[in-house]
Amino acid sequence: MTTENSAGSAAHPATGSTSTASRRRGWVSLLRDIVVIVAVAILVSLVVKTFLVRSFYIPSASMEDTLQVQDRILVDEITPRFSPYQKGDVVVFRDPGGWLPPSTAPARPFVVEAGDWLLSLVGLSAPDSDDHLIKRVIGVAGDHVVCCNAVGQITVNGTPIDETSYVKVQPGKSVPTPVPFDVVVPANSLWVLGDNRDRSQDSRYHMAEPGKGFVPLDNVVGRAFVITWPFNRFGLIDFHHEVFASVPAPSKTPSP
């Protein structure tokens, strides 16, 4: 009896130790799996953001009424790699130089920056939106773009453009205030204007700068194609390609 009790007492610690070690291995395995899943998710999201789709928010009224302040949008980065930008496309691009005022915002804590970056990987934040602009393409390489004819219309390659379907006109006006220009878009560049012409600092206002108001294709992130927030505005962004359907091709090859 005593021997049996002793043997039984000796067996319990071994069983408890084995059970504890098994649970510990289970937790370690679970934590390892979670770390792997999170790492893979971040990697996939980073690849998507870098090469496929990026999220941005709209900080100004320059593209009203197509886009409203604080709208969140997705930008297609992959399609332009296989097909050229077209007149009417709404594009996001990095500041070509001097288009945006120097930032006066105080530096944010590293933890906040890191948090925004992580959220941006899944489209919940857009920390670099303040360093980019969004406008509509009015001219591509070789196009001769002029403002304005007798009724206030822009012409592209000699063809008047009826932009009433997307250009915002301020109360009391029939057309936006004309800002004269006469340009031929060089190779690998775009001429861009905001839909809210009277509230947009676009190509027209940078003709005196080294870039002459043109946006290099290397600065273009991609085409904005959908509004994702707020939910009541969810939907595709209209490029209004039909507005430019009658525009003839440029008469000559553009110079760089």
TrEMBL record:
Keywords (A to Z) from UniProt: Hydrolase, Membrane, Protease, Transmembrane, Transmembrane helix
Catalytic activity: Cleavage of hydrophobic, N-terminal signal or leader sequences from secreted and periplasmic proteins
Every Peptidase S26 domain range: 32-229
MF terms (GO), sorted A to Z: signal peptidase activity
Membrane topology: Single-pass type II membrane protein
Transmembrane segments: 34-53
Origin superkingdom: Bacteria
EC number annotated for this UniProt entry: 3.4.21.89
Ranges for region Disordered: 1-20
Keyword Transport attributed: no
Location of the protein in the cell: Cell membrane; Membrane
Pfam families noted in UniProt: Peptidase_S26 (PF10502)
Chief localisation class: membrane
Entry keyword RNA-binding: no
Similarity section: Belongs to the peptidase S26 family.
Record protein name field: Signal peptidase I
Gene: lepB
